[in-house]
């Protein structure tokens, strides 16, 4: 997130609700827009609108948002600064995060009328046209992107192919018998949102139960617990480490990645930790409804991390996976909602921010 807007995290709910009333006409335009952006970011982190969807589809994903409010805040900001294309991109992303792809596409098309060279708007239009099966719109916009920047476009067309292919992933539900038996192998346990008092929720516990069995089966393997987002001064990683230690795993075996706030950052930060530590292989542990997305992001993160590598090690670990089955239907069903979410995160992983200038 842009440091200028970091104060949004500490904004109270009452302050956020009152923003549109307290933004004075006498304030400079930049300040009025900034206040609205801060409020939008507050709701992004402190809402709960998508938890309804989480229960239906994304049971293994940490979700915090309240997009109806965010939508109105960005609309207010656009009224003040109608030429600001970043704000329009923010609004389009808000539609997308509500799975209203049609409204998002219309917004991206409007942006391209004003700025036909806006790479990110055209890229998102192409990406989600692919998700919905609109091959004509996809092909037309990819051709224009290739004319604009062939090398950059090639990176994303490869990524879009991988999004299609990940639907074929055979999600493992039992700990494999053929994993490496040395200390260069890691089990990577992905976190899940803590309750406000810092207690783990059932989803996290289920993932940890698999990790515990795996750690006992492979006693030389190390464990990396991944997840930040503190509640009551405890991060997801800290809580997971304490649980594993309390259940008999030596603390020196359990390493922390406690800065990430979402799956994209889980992948980027964890893979860098693994490379730095010389890991040659890693097994992801998360929920079945989360696995395709996590596995693809971790695999892609390997190339990204190595391209900016500061470690003496020059290889990303070979990945395997095992999942807690939170929904049996997801094992053989790769639907549009999941593909939407994966596409969102693949774009973010590759540098296309969800909310330009505000939030990756």
Automatic annotation (TrEMBL):
- What InterPro entries does this protein's entry cite? Cell_Envelope_Assoc, DUF218, Rossmann-like_a/b/a_fold, TPR-like_helical_dom_sf
| Boundaries of every DUF218 domain copy | 186-310
For this record, an example GO cellular component is: plasma membrane
An annotated GO BP:
peptidoglycan metabolic process
Q: Which domain of life is it from?
A: Bacteria
SUPFAM superfamilies according to UniProt = TPR-like
Q: Which Pfam families match?
A: DUF218 (PF02698), TPR_19 (PF14559)
Q: CDD domains from the xrefs? A: YdcF-like (cd06259)
What name is this protein filed under? DUF218 domain-containing protein
Taxonomic lineage? Bacteria, Bacillati, Bacillota, Bacilli, Lactobacillales
């Amino acid at each position: 997130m842009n440091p200028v807007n970091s104060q949004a995290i500490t904004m109270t709910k009452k302050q956020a609700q009152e923003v549109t009333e307290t933004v004075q006409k006498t304030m400079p335009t930049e300040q009025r827009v900034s206040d609205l952006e801060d409020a939008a970011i507050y709701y992004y982190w402190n809402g709960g609108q998508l938890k309804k969807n989480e229960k239906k589809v994304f049971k293994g994903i940490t979700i915090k948002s309240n997009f109806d409010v965010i939508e109105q805040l960005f609309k207010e900001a656009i009224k003040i600064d109608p030429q600001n294309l970043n704000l329009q991109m923010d609004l389009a992303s808000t539609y997308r995060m509500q799975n209203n792809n049609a409204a998002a596409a219309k917004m991206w098309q409007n942006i391209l009328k004003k700025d036909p060279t806006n790479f990110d708007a055209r890229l998102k239009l192409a990406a989600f046209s692919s998700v919905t099966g609109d091959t004509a719109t996809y092909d037309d916009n990819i051709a224009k992107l290739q004319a604009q920047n062939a090398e950059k476009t090639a990176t994303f067309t490869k990524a879009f192919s991988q999004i299609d292919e990940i639907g074929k992933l055979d999600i493992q539900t039992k700990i494999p018998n053929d994993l490496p038996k040395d200390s260069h192998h890691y089990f990577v346990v992905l976190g899940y949102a803590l309750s406000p008092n810092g207690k783990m929720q059932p989803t996290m516990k289920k993932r940890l139960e698999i990790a515990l069995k795996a750690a006992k089966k492979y006693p030389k393997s190390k464990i990396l617990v991944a997840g930040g987002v503190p509640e009551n001064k405890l991060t997801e990683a800290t809580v997971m480490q304490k649980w594993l230690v309390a259940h008999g795993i030596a603390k020196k075996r359990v390493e922390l990645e406690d800065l990430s706030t979402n799956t994209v950052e889980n992948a980027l930060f964890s893979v860098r930790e693994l490379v730095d530590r010389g890991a040659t292989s890693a097994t992801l542990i998360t929920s079945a409804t989360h696995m395709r997305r996590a596995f693809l992001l971790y695999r892609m993160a390997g190339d990204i991390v190595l391209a900016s590598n500061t470690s003496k090690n020059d290889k990303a670990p070979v990945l395997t996976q095992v999942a807690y089955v939170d929904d049996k239907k997801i094992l053989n069903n790769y639907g549009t909602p999941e593909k939407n979410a994966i596409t969102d995160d693949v774009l973010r992983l590759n540098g296309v921010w969800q909310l330009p200038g505000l939030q990756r």
